[in-house]
Design brief:
Elements (H helix, E strand, L loop, with lengths): L1 H13 L7 H22 L4 H22 L7
Helix pairs in contact: 2-3
Amino acid sequence: MSTSDRTRRTREHSAAGGRFSRYDLLLLVIPAAFLLALVGSTVSPLPTRAFVAGASVVGALAVADGLFVNPPGRGR
């Protein structure tokens, strides 16, 4: 029974018309932060480790938000 429920939720999510959920956006934030760190480290005289550290903080905040501040719940 849980398989059919999971399938129904997947179909409902894919039929949403391309809207991103909060968790989809959080998953996009993490690689975007590291891509910006890569670009920033190539155009700036600052060391690469400063940009990577900043991207790591942004990624950790995104994960913390998705897991602890606004956790996924049943029925979402």
